[in-house]
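2024-03-11 09:14:02 INFO worker-7 job=invfold-0412 stage=load source=structure_tokens
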């Protein structure tokens, strides 16, 4: 009887999370082009603090970009609005909390937890929302072309 209950619970769990993203990635069967449409939600309850920036055009690599490191704190219910990484690749590291990504190339929300890393490439257009009960703290390293660009 316990074995049947365990198997039933395992089957129920597999069904419930079958379409969820694992380890902060979109499930392969949910990937596509423009499967999530742009959101018009504005930024809400998010702070964006530039921790450091290097002008790469003045470095030996000679790239006309700024290498920027930021800390974003997204409060519960907070939103990082829709934006593209068409010309601004980035890598996001989730320090604490959990945040949900709604990406143009994924038909289901992607949940990122502390310790996850999310690469953001030219194929990435998305928005994020903290659906949890504690602040989500993220580190963002990106290659910024225009210092006046305040896109998240």
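2024-03-11 09:14:09 INFO worker-7 stage=emit residues=152
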């Amino acid at each position: 009887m316990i074995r049947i209950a365990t198997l039933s619970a395992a089957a129920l769990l597999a069904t419930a999370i079958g379409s969820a993203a694992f380890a902060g990635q979109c499930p392969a069967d949910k990937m596509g082009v423009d499967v999530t449409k742009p959101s018009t939600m504005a930024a809400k309850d998010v702070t964006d603090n530039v921790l450091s920036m290097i002008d790469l055009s003045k470095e030996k690599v000679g790239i006309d970009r700024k290498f920027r490191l930021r800390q974003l704190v997204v409060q519960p219910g907070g939103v990082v609005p829709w934006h593209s990484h068409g010309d601004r690749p980035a890598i996001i590291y989730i320090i604490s909390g959990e945040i949900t990504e709604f990406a143009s190339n994924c038909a289901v929300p992607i949940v990122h937890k502390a310790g996850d890393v999310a690469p953001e490439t030219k194929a990435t257009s998305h928005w994020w929302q903290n659906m949890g009960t504690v602040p989500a703290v993220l580190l963002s390293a990106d290659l910024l072309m225009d210092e006046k660009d305040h896109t998240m």
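2024-03-11 09:14:09 INFO worker-7 stage=report msg="Residues 1-22 have pLDDT under 50 and may be disordered."
2024-03-11 09:14:10 INFO worker-7 job finished
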